[in-house]
Every structure is written in structure tokens, then in C-alpha cells.
Design goal:
Order of helices and strands: HHHHHEHEEEHEE
Mean pLDDT: 85
Oligomer: single chain
Distance between the termini: 52 Å
Largest sheet: 6 strands, antiparallel
Number of strands: 6
Strand order of the largest sheet: 1-6-5-2-3-4
Number of domains: 2
Radius of gyration: 19 Å
Shape: elongated
Helix content: 25-40%
CATH class of the largest domain: Alpha Beta
Structural class: alpha+beta
């Protein structure tokens, strides 16, 4: 990968995280001019088309990936999603509920790097913006995908805090923020608070303290 391509890749990822899909299309096309069979760029381009409601272009792009790597999990997964909406050419993607999903709110949101990760083959099937779900264990909160596959665990100090909040009636949403074969970060948002913790922020600034 040339320095120029590496820089463009960083820009493409940033555009996707910022929900700037028109810019993402432009940047990934520029990468593909230099490397026509760049699978990550093709997958990002397909995602951008899909987010813009351009299903046919997204489908063609993912099929290019399959020609290069027939078992590519991202392309195969997204082709199935597109197929479910093949009669809705202007259908808007629901990968990310809104452009504000990663908007930070002091005390209510937190970016978390998971521990005890699943295998790289499982992580490879994730996209930024995918919804994930919590499963409370004794001392840890496990994180699962939509098919209830285990992805990783929230660090113990934060897990114990979240367990107390969830048992007290708080509700949360979580989405994949960034992922590769050995790293997974999720963005957690407090949706509502139970009466017991109505005045207590889920994620105070500074070091977390355990609730008594």
C-alpha cells in the first residue's frame, strides 16, 4: 500500500464514521483507481452506496468482491441484506439508526474497547454501525451480535457498574464503532434511567467508581 493509498483509506474510514456517504463514495473510488481489486475499499464503497439507497450499485460492488474472494463474509452478509429489499431501490439502510448514533453526550455515552474477543473469523463479519447486545454474567457483561454470537466482554470495572445500572432499570443501546481482526470498540449510549439512578450519570468523567 502506497502512502497516498494509506492516507485515502484513513479518509474513507473517517467519512464512513461521520456518516458522510457521498464523500465515502468519492474517496473509495479514488482508491480503486489505483487498486481496482482492493477488497476493503470495495466493501466500503458498497456500504456507502447502500447507505445512500443506491441498492443496485451496492449489489454490483459487493459482487465484485465475491469474484475476488467468494467467501468474503462482509460482502456475502450485505448481499443477503440487499436481497431482502430488492424491490425497494430507494430503500434507506438501517445499519445505523441515524447520523447521530455516534454523537457523544457527557455522562450518557462511552466508547469501550472490548476484552476477551471472539475469533478473527467472527469479528470479520462485523461492520461499523452494527447493533450489538448485552448479556449479563456474574461479573462481566458479554457483548453479542444480532445472531447471538459472542463478540467480547466489557472490561470488568465498567461491567460491574453497568450490571448495577441495568438491574436498577437503566436501558442502553450499543453499536460497533471500529473493528479489525484483533480489536473491537463499541459505542454505548444510555437510553433511559431507572428511578433508582435517575440523577446518576452512567459514565461520569474521570475514573469510574463502583456503586454501593
Amino acid at each position: 500500500m502506497t502512502p497516498m493509498t494509506a492516507s485515502l483509506e484513513e479518509q474513507a474510514i473517517k467519512a464512513a464514521l461521520n456518516q458522510n456517504w457521498e464523500k465515502a463514495v468519492e474517496i473509495n473510488k479514488n482508491i480503486l483507481k489505483e487498486k481496482p481489486e482492493d477488497i476493503p475499499a470495495l466493501n466500503r464503497l458498497g456500504r456507502a452506496f447502500w447507505e445512500l439507497g443506491q441498492n443496485e450499485k451496492a449489489q454490483r460492488t459487493y459482487k465484485k468482491v465475491i469474484k475476488i474472494d467468494r467467501f468474503n463474509p462482509i460482502a456475502n452478509k450485505n448481499l443477503k441484506r440487499i436481497g431482502k429489499n430488492k424491490n425497494k431501490n430507494n430503500f434507506k439502510s438501517n445499519f445505523v439508526p441515524s447520523g447521530k448514533v455516534f454523537l457523544e453526550e457527557p455522562g450518557r455515552t462511552k466508547l469501550v474497547r472490548l476484552t476477551r474477543l471472539a475469533s478473527p473469523s467472527v469479528l470479520a463479519q462485523l461492520d461499523s454501525g452494527d447493533a450489538v447486545f448485552f448479556l449479563i454474567k456474574k461479573r462481566l457483561v458479554s457483548v453479542l451480535d444480532e445472531q447471538e454470537n459472542y463478540l467480547g466482554a466489557i472490561p470488568e470495572d465498567l461491567s460491574q457498574r453497568l450490571i448495577k445500572f441495568i438491574k436498577g432499570g437503566n436501558q442502553y443501546q450499543a453499536f460497533v464503532k471500529s473493528v479489525d481482526h484483533q480489536r473491537l470498540e463499541i459505542f454505548i449510549r444510555e437510553v433511559s434511567r431507572g428511578k433508582k439512578f435517575a440523577s446518576i450519570p452512567s459514565f461520569p468523567q474521570g475514573k469510574l467508581s463502583l456503586l454501593q
